[in-house]
Amino acid sequence: MKLQQLRFFVSVCHSGLNVTAAAKQLFTSQPGVSRQVRLLEDELGFSLFVRQGKALVSLTYAGKEVLSRAEKILKEVENIKAFSHELTNEHNGQLNIATTHTQARYVLPPVLKKLHAVYPSIKVNLLQGTSQQNLKSLREGEVDFVISSGGTEQASDLVKLDLFKWQRKIVVPKNHTLAKQSTLSLEELSKHPLIVYVGNDKASSSLVQAFNAAQLDYKIVFTARDSDVIKTYVRSELGVGIIAGMAVDEKLDDDLHAIDTVGVLPLSSTWLAFNPSLFMRGFMHEFIQLFAPHVKREQIQSAIDNKLLLIDPQKISQPIDSAWHS
After folding, report:
1. Which of 244, 245, 272, 243 is nearest to 148 (CA)?
2. What angle do CA 212, 213, 219 make, to 5 degrees?
3. Which residue did the predictor score with more confidence, 257 or 158?
4. Which of 105, 116, 120, 115 is nearest to 289 (CA)?
5. What SS3 state is found at 29?
6. 169 phi and psi, to 5 degrees?
7. Residues 306 and 168 sit within 8 Å (Cβ to Cβ)
């Protein structure tokens, strides 16, 4: 069994079972990919794919098991390469982060500026998507870290750091009937059409659960991934916006009125997740330290070494509603 065979097999799986697409990604020929996969199947003694003619339809049960193990093997190979690179050139490399628009737009800029000052040769790649999309990218090895908010039920196989608690804000135009209020009850909020983040309209979201717990009817008229898009539609008077508190910019949003939700809506969390098998290079530790100074390096290393899937440093040293990076 050769690493190349495993690499070709995994690439076919990650390309939607499209051998042509996998060949392009691997910079080789389609027959070459098919041949290596067949050789792997011959050596293993069973089929990895369900086939209809020459087309690959799905993975067999055995194929799914081999895929899971092959991904881990290839990840460890990458870790060995990264370790070698770290020893020979610790100030070069790249950091791949999957996150939401709010984090990328309002939280990460000063953090990455500080990281660049310490590691000027490090290239940072930001991938923006929903929590589900970002976790998929993490599991497929496209990114090193996921930074997101909301529930973490789908992250149980990952090392996850709960970093911050934060409050939502309600935003309305200055001429809105709510513009003179500094506080708002959940019942009052439920009477207005709402504009929220994608996913906040799901039964699993804390927003929907808050309304349901209070037995209140509500109406969500628009969802978006982007805080700025939500604010745009608030300005168009489509509805009342509910966004992350850090996404309210006093200068840029001086035409909007922001209302606190303390005691009205539950706190939200920002968390960072990575694969337990990730080789943590020096600049990765530095990024976490800059992003969340209250998280100690030894806490992270302990979580990795002891295969902990959830640690919450905030319970130890970080107060709720602590200031974001200033």
Report:
1. 272
2. 25
3. 257
4. 115
5. coil
6. -130, 145
7. no
Radius of gyration of the chain (CA): 23
C-alpha to C-alpha distance for 169 and 326, rounded to whole angstroms: 19
Q: What is the pLDDT of residues 189-223, one digit of tens each?
A: 999 999 999 888 988 888 999 999 999 999 999 99
One-letter amino acid for residue 76 of the chain: E
Neighbours of 40 (CB within 10 A): 19
Cα distance between residue 209 and residue 215, in whole Å: 10
Q: Do 62 and 47 meet the contact criterion of CB atoms below 8 Å apart?
A: yes
DSSP annotation string for 122-178: EEEEEEE--HHHHHHHHHTTS-SEEEEES--GGGTTSEEEEEEEE-EEEEEETTSTT
Which domains are seen in the chain, by residue range? 3-86 (1.10.10.10), 91-163+270-317 (3.40.190.10), 168-260 (3.40.190.10)
Residues found in the chain: 326
Q: Are 170 and 259 in contact (CB under 8 A)?
A: yes
pTM reported for the whole predicted model: 0.68
> What would the pLDDT profile of 8-32 be if each residue is shown by its tens digit?
999 999 999 998 998 998 888 988 8
Torsion of CA 110, 227, 156, 161, to 10 degrees: 30
Residue that is written with structure tokens 């008229």 in the block: 221
Q: Which of 31, 30, 35, 37 is nearest to 7 (CA)?
A: 37
Look up residue 130 and give its two tokens.
């929903």
Question: Angle, nearest 10°, between helix axes 61-88 and 3-14?
Answer: 110
Residue with tokens 């910019």: 249
Give, as one character, the DSSP assignment of residue 312. -
Q: How far apart are CA 306 and CA 97, in angstroms?
A: 24
